[in-house]
Protein: 4,5:9,10-diseco-3-hydroxy-5,9, 17-trioxoandrosta-1(10),2-diene-4-oate hydrolase
Organism: Mycobacterium simulans
Amino acid sequence: MAEFESVWSDLQGVPFEQGYLLAGGAGGIRTRYLRAGHPGAPVLLLLHGSGGHAEAYVRNLAAHAEHFWTWSIDMLGHGFTDKPGHPLEIHHYVEHVMAVVRAIGVERISLSGESLGGWVAARAAVDHPDVIDRLVLNTAGGSQADPEVMQRIIDLSMAAAEDPTWETVQARIKWLMADKSKGYDDLAASRQRIYRQPGFVAAMRDIMALQDPDIRARNLLGPEEYGAITAPTLVLWTSHDPTADVPEGRRIASMIPGARFEVMSGCGHWPQYEDAKTFNRLHLDFLLGR
């Protein structure tokens, strides 16, 4: 019998905190986080994907907290973080991330993002090279516009937000994963609660702005942007990513000076969850310069 997968089981025994900070000072953005590690350690900030939340990294907090003051946040407009009430483009997310860094009270961080989080992380590394020590782009978006994938993201995300039944939310979670045989019940329950918040349908529409062809076009990253990244970078891809194939990941890496490229087999869009042991090893080897 398959073992039940629980967010709490993943965090059980892990010294972690859940809380909120104000990004941008008084009157700023109330930002939810999961945090583990020691305040004196270097800071690692983890960014989830579109429509996601901090629990994307529940299987990674413990390993990374041994070396970093590790923060996984609900990004702007996502999870239980404040919803600004307008379409969200990459610069809005980057501004929020930088406000979070200032609120934490540090000058430099390592930054790792998955999907939308990778897109935001890459842009942050271009715009704020003085802040980013090391960069990880994990099945990152932002390099292309595939109409079929964009429409699939809209359909699954809006269906889950407009009618957050078990089936619609579970379908959105399963789309992320290579292994479709599992129920991912605890993740689905966590996301269902988020999607049932009053006003979340409008928030999801704002999140989906980057799937609009015109908006996406002005936010995409190309050779000039990737080529301007100066932070040591790991581009991490998977064998079963539903958004882009391995050659696209390799193409991104080829545009970033000196980037390392790794492929994880048997994983979809959430390798940090589906194969946490391998992800944690590759991720920490890179972040620690090993």
User: Anything to note?
Assistant: The beta strands are 16-23, 29-36, 43-47, 69-73, 109-114, 132-138, 233-238, 260-264.
